[in-house]
What we know:
about 525 residues; mainly alpha; 4-stranded antiparallel beta sheet; two-stranded antiparallel ribbon; 20 helices; globular; ClC; Cl-channel_core; transmembrane; transport; ion transport
Amino acid sequence: MSKKxxxxxxxxxxxxxxxxxxxLSLLVGLITGIxxxxxxxxxxxxxxxxxxxxxxxxxxxxSRLLFIWGIFIAIGFFVDYLSRKFPTTGGSGIPQVKxxxxxxxxxxxxxxxxxxxxxxxxxGIGAGLSLGREGPSVQLGxxxxxxxxxxxxxxxxDEKYLVTAGSSAGLAGAFGAPLAGVIFSMEExxxxxxxxxxxxxxxxxxxxxxxxxxxxxxxxxxxxxxxxPTDINPYFQFLFFTIFGIVVAFFGKLFTVSLIKTQDxxxxxxxxxxxxxxxxxxxxxxxxxxxxxxxxxGHELVEELPHINQTIIFLLFIFIVKLFFTTLSYATGFQGxxxxxxxxxGAVLGKIYALVLITFFNLNSDFVVHYMILGMAGFFxxxxxxxITGVILILxxxxxxxxxLAIATVSIVAYYITDLLKLEPIYxxxxxxxxxxxxxxxxxxxxxxHHNKTLICIPVSAESEFDEKLxxxxxxxxxxxxxxxxxxxxxxxxxxxxxxxxxDVLVLLLPEKxxxxxNETLFKMGTAx
Length: 529
């Protein structure tokens, strides 16, 4: 009887979680928008300072040259210290958010970590490292969501919603793309859609985007003169799209393999850490002199590409250098993402492809920007394996929906080819490689199995281990109890003969000490094909 009462209390607690949740999502979006906008504005100032203080005139002033070089090295040492002291702040931040949602990671000192992520990214990217602002922005939003959970004493279920809402708001504020922020959370972080999750993420993203647009204006993120080229046979257009999608897929695999290999090599090189950091910062200092456009995220490079006359060979050189510098910058573990550098590489690849078509088929210059846009979307999809996010993100960032069919075609082809190549999503790979929270052994779990319980929600996708199965047919992990099945707006207590369908959300009761270990296992059972 007491067990039934306990289950009933847990279900009631889950249902009461909606009270104030949407209001908190709005607040999380608002605060995230402010913080991410300040972060973005700070990176803009850092870019201006690099351009102002680092130029060829420094070669005539050796003392000043050495002084600025010393500043770069000092920044590297300081950011490296922060990254090692607070390891959860290192890198992109998106794998950490996934780990937090799956209870494989905790933000133990969330406010300190937020500050470290903010200033570490500002200094590292500001010093020219080829890293993007989007990953840190997503994680900054997750810190806000997590902090609100603790401040307002919300349960674990609400924590997932607020962390996801903050992450969506972070991406929306970083790129002025609220819809992409929502879709990214569904497609990459959760891999399922629910009305409650959509509302929370939408509210937060819209608030964050509203704040960002008050500061950066209403223009789309990329200022490009876009015109859809129509002076070509549509069948030839479709053929060119298909070929380009295949090309982008192979280059996407090159990026993924290079990123992972560079990380491994950087760790395996038998040199003191300070020497490796000094090398990377010195390289950044040199590149700021000779090729300043490829430093930082590379946003300016995308906007300059259509207006500069470069040869195909030179563009290939830019692609290789940007690729190498991005993978090396990320290997340091400093606070910065790969999102924006990926888009830049895709844009460069798009221009190369356009120039090839122009040379051999005598096409007009409208194809340059056209294929730059397609390249950004296709390259993103090939690496991240999130096609809907890729399409929506580029449409919002460019402000042109004329390219919808073309972007969708290239993205689908790139996704299909990378699937044939058995290329895993980059954030899944990074998630698997990151250190997780240590789980207590089975004896310790057994000792605590009768202590506090917790609820988790597991989505059910088509063709997963749960789909079309009866509750009694599933080999549930030990101490797992199915207390409710949500189907649409209906929630009911299941029996052994209840059938689980794709689109359901299972509410499971677990011993709190085992939840961290079982959450990921159950999530994979519900979503993996």
